[in-house]
Specification:
Helix content of chain A: 25-40%
Structural class of chain A: alpha+beta
Number of strands of chain A: 14
Distance between the termini of chain B: 48 Å
Helix content of chain B: 25-40%
Distance between the termini of chain A: 57 Å
Oligomer: heterodimer
Largest sheet of chain A: 5 strands, antiparallel
Strand order of the largest sheet of chain A: 4-5-10-6-7
Number of helices of chain B: 5
Radius of gyration of chain A: 19 Å
Number of strands of chain B: 5
Largest interface: A-B, 29 and 28 residues
Number of domains of chain B: 2
Shape of chain A: globular
CATH topology of the largest domain in chain A: Uridine Diphospho-n-acetylenolpyruvylglucosamine Reductase, domain 3
Order of helices and strands of chain A: EHEHEEEHHHHHHEEHEEEEEEEHHH
Shape of chain B: globular
Order of helices and strands of chain B: EEHEEEHHHH
Strand order of the largest sheet of chain B: 2-1-5-3-4
CATH class of the largest domain in chain A: Alpha Beta
Radius of gyration of chain B: 16 Å
């Protein structure tokens, strides 16, 4: 039987209360939301928190809404809600692409965007999605809020900028004109972690790419933000050849390791192909939205 | 700590450790061993129950997290000796051999039909993609859910 080691449990009734508990209990306390990453880690003793603070009652952290020129997603928003959101499908279709292939529908009923991002597993899809669409994470502590970009949010493998006594409360994604986005993933079987996955966003201005965002899952120790490929695309007209070049950069700039899901050269190849495919679909969507 | 969970409409209160998983809380309740405890890693789906109407994997939820929530297990499907249409469908189309995955499959299928009474075969396959049948009976399981959907549609027409 797999059972977590013993811990103390409390249920938060407010965001401020959860943060106060985190501060009172110190670094051995962990937030639990969907629990579909944390509880398996606890069963394997890869995580041994002394206290769990359950935030599932904090309805105020569950929303997807437009606020000015941003879409704001509450940290407790579950995968199933991201999948079904017409607001996201219309403006940021990369989310529906990814949510269709994250775990399985039953797991998606529990897991949350905040949990996925805070788990910071390099193989996890939403971290790449958020990186590609240039999301910012809102982190709240006793002293107030700070807002960090995804590059600063991901500190290392399974490590984020969320410090002791702090809580990820919201993800903010800018809404910019000419946008298109897509996520491409190859997995061994339905619901598995990616062998490799690529998220891409483009922002078109007339016939050229004004800006682009690209990130990879499962081919490095952390989510890989392909800044060199983004730089290549800026100011250029989209073409198959250009996207193949971006794919070549993706193959070079990732750092996969060999495992049961495949050898290094295969994963590099996959990262390149998926990058080009994601860019192609993102661009087609941007053009479709404009016409 | 004391936990009260509504299981199939009845309040069950027990003093448990916070680390107790929902699947064990349910199975430790007299008469409720229908929920199966399988892989323990949220992969196999044998432990699926409904939490407030949504299928969830009870091996990956703490019992303490369920206080105040409504849990439905496979035992709730049969009412006064009458099987639920998804149970009838599994019977009619021979959708089980060993039956270990069946409770989770039934609760997943019930939730699917409650939300989408006329699913395509692909939608059925997606819905049960988090449940593993090692007797490789997916074809008949999909047929069973289809059978139940048709049965319920016909019953509705008769009314």
């Amino acid at each position: 039987m797999q059972t977590p080691a013993a811990f103390e449990y409390e249920r938060a009734t407010s965001v401020d209360g959860a943060i106060a508990s985190l501060q009172r209990l110190g670094p051995e306390a962990r937030i639990i939301a969907g629990g579909h990453s944390l509880l398996p880690m606890m069963k394997l003793r890869l995580a041994n928190p002394a206290h769990l603070i359950d935030i599932n009652d904090l309805e105020e952290l569950s929303y997807i809404r437009v606020d000015g020129d941003e879409i704001r997603i509450g940290a407790l928003t579950r995968h199933v809600e991201l999948l079904k959101s017409e607001l996201l499908a219309e403006n940021l279709p990369v989310f529906r692409d990814a949510e269709t292939v994250i775990a399985d529908p039953v797991v998606r009923n529990r897991g949350t965007i905040g949990g996925s991002l805070c788990q910071a597993d390099a193989a996890e899809d939403l971290s790449a999605v958020c990186s590609a669409v240039k999301a910012r994470a809102v982190i709240r502590g006793a002293g107030g809020e700070r807002v960090v970009g995804m590059d600063d949010f991901h500190v290392g493998p399974f490590q984020t900028a969320v410090g002791d006594g702090e809580l990820l409360t919201e993800v903010r994604i800018p809404l910019r004109p000419g946008a298109g986005s897509a996520h491409e993933k190859v997995e061994r079987r339905a619901g598995d972690w990616a062998i490799a996955a690529a998220s891409a966003a483009v922002w078109l201005d007339g016939g050229t790419i004004a800006d682009a965002g690209i990130a990879l899952s499962a081919v490095g120790l952390t989510t890989i933000h392909l800044t060199r490929a983004e730089e290549l695309l800026r100011g250029k007209a989209p073409s198959d050849d250009l996207f193949a070049q971006a794919g070549a950069i993706a193959s070079e700039d990732c750092s996969p390791t060999a495992d049961g899901r495949g050898p290094v050269d295969y994963k590099r190849h996959l990262a390149g192909v998926l990058t080009a495919r994601a860019l192609t679909r993102a661009t087609a969507r941007a053009q479709e939205a404009r016409s | 700590m004391n936990v009260t969970i509504s299981i199939n409409g009845e309040k069950v209160t027990r003093d448990v450790e916070p680390r107790q998983l929902l699947v064990h809380f349910i199975r430790d309740t007299p008469g409720l061993t229908g929920t199966h405890w399988g892989c323990d890693t949220s992969n196999c789906g044998a432990c699926v129950v409904q939490m407030d109407g949504e299928p969830v994997k009870s091996c990956t939820i703490l019992a303490v997290m369920c206080e105040g929530h409504e849990i439905r297990t496979v035992e709730s499907l049969e009412v006064d000796g009458r099987l639920d249409p998804v149970q009838l469908g599994f019977h009619e189309t021979h959708a089980l051999q060993c039956g270990f995955c069946t409770p989770g499959m039934l609760m997943t299928a019930r939730a699917l039909l409650d939300e989408n009474p006329d699913p395509t075969d692909q939608e059925i396959r997606t819905a049960i993609s988090g449940a593993i049948c090692r007797c490789t009976g997916y074809k008949n399981i999909v047929a069973a859910v289809r059978w139940a959907a048709d049965y319920e549609a016909a019953a509705k027409q008769e009314v």
